[in-house]
Amino acid sequence: MLALSRKKGEALVISNNIEVTVLEIKGDQVKLGISAPREVPVYRKEIYLQIQDANKASVADASGMQALKDLFN
Length: 73
Known about the structure:
Layout: E1 11-14, E2 18-26, E3 29-35, H1 45-60, H2 62-72
Antiparallel strand pairs: 1-2, 2-3
């Protein structure tokens, strides 16, 4: 993991097309602004993990796949 120090108004660039800027610092909370192309998804980590869990659960549900196969046969 790369650890960087930034002050309010400072930014960092990822892969030439994503910019993360420190907008505000209040106590132990930091507000970030993210500029990225529309095709690059940006999620809070807890939401990203929920999406992954939902995807794994849907793949694990083989009964749904069998019902879909039965529909087309």
